[in-house]
Each structure stands twice: as C-alpha cells, then as structure tokens.
Amino acid sequence: MHDLRAGPYLCLVPRTMLAQQLVNGVLLGATYALFALGFTLTFGVLRVVNLTYGFYFTAGAFLALWLTRHLGAPIWVALPVASVGAGLIAVVIDFLLLTRLRRKNAPELASLMVTIGGVLALYAGMTAWVGPDVQRLPPGLISAEAYDIAGLRITQAQILILVATAVLVAALLFLLRGTRLGLALRAMAERPDAAGLMGINTGRAAALVSFLSGLLAGAGGVLIGLNFNAIQPFMGESMMLRGFVVIIVGGLGDIRGALIAGLLLGVLEVLTAGYLASSLKEAVAFMILVAVLWTRPQGLFGTSTVRRA
Amino acid sequence: MMPAWLASDWTIPAGLDDFLWTYGHLINSLGINGLLALSMYVVLAVGQLSLGQAAFMGLGAYSSVLMTLTLKLPFYVVLPASCLVPVLFALAVGVPTLRLSGVYLAIATIGLGEVLRALYLNVDVFGGALGINGIPERAQTWMIFGMLILALLGLWLVGRSRIGRAMEAMREDATAAAVMGVNVPGYQLGALVASAVLAGIAGCLSAHQSSFIGPNEYGFEPAVTILSFALLGGIGTPVAPVVGAWILTLLPELLRGFSDLRLVFNGLIIVVAVLFLPHGLLGWRMRRRAA
Lengths: 309, 291
Fold this sequence. Notes:
The complex is a heterodimer of chains A (about 300) and B (about 290). Chain A has about 300 residues and is mostly helical. Chain A has helices at about 20-45, 55-70, 75-105, 110-130, 155-180, 180-190, 190-195, 200-230, 235-250, 255-275, 280-295; strands at about 145-150, 150-155. Chain A is about 70% helix and about 5% strand. By secondary structure, chain B is an all-alpha fold. Chain B has helices at about 5, 15-45, 55-70, 75-80, 85-95, 100-120, 140-160, 160-170, 175-180, 185-210, 220-235, 240-255, 260-275. In chain B, helix 2 crosses helix 12 and helix 3 (about 55-70) packs antiparallel against helix 5 (about 85-95). At the A-B interface, helix 3, helix 4, helix 9 and helix 11 of A face helix 5, helix 6, helix 9, helix 11 and helix 13 of B.
C-alpha cells in the first residue's frame, strides 16, 4: 500500500528539531487541507459523501505520471493539466453515478452506496489496467536540492506544494465569496430546491462543483505523488482516511474548518511519526476522528447540526 | 443386517472425499460469506450503512487467533469470545455516530477499516504484512453452517416479531418511527452490535479454517464486497442477502478467466443495484400478522 513513511521528511527525524518538524507538518497538512477541501465542497453543496473522490486523487497522480514520463512535460505543465484532467473525469463520473439519484431526490445513503460501488470498480479497473505496483515519477522532475532558510531545510517540492496550495485555496475562496457563481453555489448549499426556483441551473452547478472538487483532488494527488514519489492505483484510498478525519474535525461542508483541520492533522502526524512511532500515524488520525465524534460531532468550529426526530 | 454405509464406521465415500477436498474451501466460504451478508443485513435493515463489516471480521479473526495461539484456549471458548473485541469497537464507533445522520456511521466505519489495516501492518503482535501463519484448522464445515442456520433462524424470528416491524418502520422513515414510540437509537445500536457479533464470529471461523490471516483481507475491498452481497440479494428477508452472497461467491469460480475484474464486477453490482434494483434480486418482504 501507499506508504507515507517513505517520505523525504523522515530523514530529518533524528535531528528532532521541533521547528523543522512543524514546517514539515504544515506542508504535509497543506496537501491534506487541499485534498479535503474538494471533499467538503462536494458534501456542502451537493449533500453527497462522494467516495469516488479518492479516485480523482489517484487519477491526478497517474495523469501527471503519464504526462511527465511519456510526453516529457515539466512539472509546471503537468500539475495544472493533470488537475484539470482529474476535474473532467470527476464531472463524467458524477454524471454517470449521481444524476439519476439527484433527480429522484434519493436519500443520502443511497448516493453514498453508489459511490462506494463506483470507486471500488474504478480502483480495481485501474489496478487491472496499470498493475498494482508503485510507480515513480521520472527522476530530475523537480530538483532534490533543498534550501536552507534560517536553519530550516525546505525542498523545492515543498515550496511547490506551498505555492500551489495557496494559489488554489485563494482561487477557490475568491470564487465562492467574490463571484456570482459562488453566490449560486452557496445558495445551493443552503437550500437546493429554493436555489433551483431562483433560476440557478442546478445541474450545471453540480457539474461545476464536481469539476472543482476533482481538480483539487487531482492537484493533491500530483503534489503528494511528487512529495513521496510513490504512485499506485489505491493511493487515493489511504488518503480518504485523512479526508474523513479532516472534514469531520473541521465540520462537514465547512471550508475554513477543513483548512485548519488539515493543517492540524499534518502537524500531528509528523509529530507522532517523529516523537512516538510512524506506525501510529493512522491510529492517531482515527483517534482524533472518534474523539471529535464523541465530544464535538458538529466539528471543532461548527454549530450544532445534530438531527433530532 | 446393518446397511453397508452405516457399518463402515463413517468413512466418507471416495467420490465425496474428492469432492470435499476440491471444493471444501469453497463450501466453507459460502457459509462464512453468508454470515457476513447477514451481518450487513442487520445494519441495513434499520436503515443505516456500516462499512465496518470487514473490520469487525478482522478484529474477530485477529483476536481469536491470538487467543488460540498465545493463550492456547480451546475453540469452544475462542469462538464465542471472538465477538468481544468487535463489539467493543462497534460501541466505540456506534455510540457517538448513531446520534447523527447516517453518513457519520458510514464514514467512521470506513475509517475504522483503514486504521486497523495500518495497525495490523505495523504492530508486531499482528505479524505485519506477512500476517499470521499456522493457525490450527479447528473450524469444521458443520460449525460454519450451524452458525449460519442459527443466525438465519434468529434473524427470521426477530424479523417476524414487533422488533422486525420497528426495524422496517425505521428503515422507511426514522422520524415517523420515532414519533410512533420506536426507540430508534437503541435499535440502531443494537443492530450494529449484532452485526459486529456476526462478523466477529465469521472472522474467527474463517481464520480457523484457512490457517492464515493477513492485513489486506479485512480492508476496503472486502468491506465493499460484503455490501454487494446484501445489495444484490436485497434486504427484504434474511435469506435474500445470503443468496446474494452465494451468487457472488460462486460466480468468480465459474468465471475464472476474469479474476482481475472480480472486484470491478462487485463494485458495478452495487451501482446497478442501487440505481435500478433497489429491492435486490429477492425483493419480497417478510409477512407478519397484523398487530
């Protein structure tokens, strides 16, 4: 399986330098936040826990692999192209799996089940096609040399992660908060039926949300693939655990919460790996999930959404 | 005079022996997958979705194997005890999530499966990626099918009773059922615990008939496969998911050449079942007397 221990940050652990750990954690957390953002956006606007989301992560990584390996594309071309490609894949899959249920106003668990079946078929089909082995991006795609900034070691891949995440998050926030399109999406999140009555083309808006979420997941896949240099079909599945933790800790559908929770999770994982044992990373993530469910199920920053009969 | 088959001190006829040797494992998997389908059915029957069936199975398998190998307990103790750990985890995950909408249980149980796989892989007691080998084969075919028949009977009786009516009411409309006085969270938690018991026992039986367990047997793919059992058969009666499990267990045997695509097929079954066949293949419902 996709092994995050193979990451480049591990070589720094013996130094046990808290500041360095925090920097690595924040950068890892940035990718988690980026990944979870699209997931929470889909839930917030379309009211679907869409498990095919993990596949877009895989798809982004494999598109980047194909672009760089076979077309010799540099990373600054491969990253946006693969992300857009993953977004388009998301639109098609969403259309095939969920349009019918959306029209019937089916219960949310029905949509969840469809996406579970869909994502298993997609992962398994992908594995049958490209094989289960871990593949690596071409060497020299991004320089391995690291900068020394105030005693902290930062690789070029990490800088790319930081810049790409910042740009994507800023663009998404601008789209949602500063444009009419964003207003339409927020209206749909609030009251889908009323939004439809107010003349919002809900079908097109659903396609747009799918595209955006696929784009974010795809970008996350490229960046994580670059950071850990290990790409294989089921990589999206192990990422989904982080996605769940982040969106539940941040509050389902809460974008600001997802950003903060993503960063927190990244820092906690790196600290766990550095000071306890890297094998406990997943367990820590899951314990946070269960602890939040027990104590603050609406998420750390949310208001109560407990459904009462 | 005694008939020959009775006198010959219970040796199995040669033809049957060959048959069992070739297909014994398959026959056992029919029983085990039937139990797993029932464990899925119990949760779906109250209108919830748990993806923790494989995780509960894994907990039952690992805990029972450790009881057999390190504590040297006899199988008649191990088998009932194998449901303890799964039940504890079901409570830990179920109590907080069942107060919330259905997606929380689904998410938390998928997460449970992922984190347990990571634990089995990384913690030495569980044998890491190699799993645990050399488990004594103590689960007999009659035990597996005995448990399956017991579970079927029990669920059938529960389904026919007041509880079954309450479960069906909750599945159709939880709010309306709660207004009518059904203890919805209580039944939901009870169903989750029952499903953990069934899955834990299935895990114990399967571990003690295959001599090997490994971390990847209880991850996301088996969880989804178990869901496909129940969705293919339907959840109108407890028999339906078992039939679904048997179809999906036998089908890969008939279509050996497509083994790579088995999981693709299981996934597509779910998609097709939810979109076009919401009541499964066996769609009839249980009959009850008027209250």
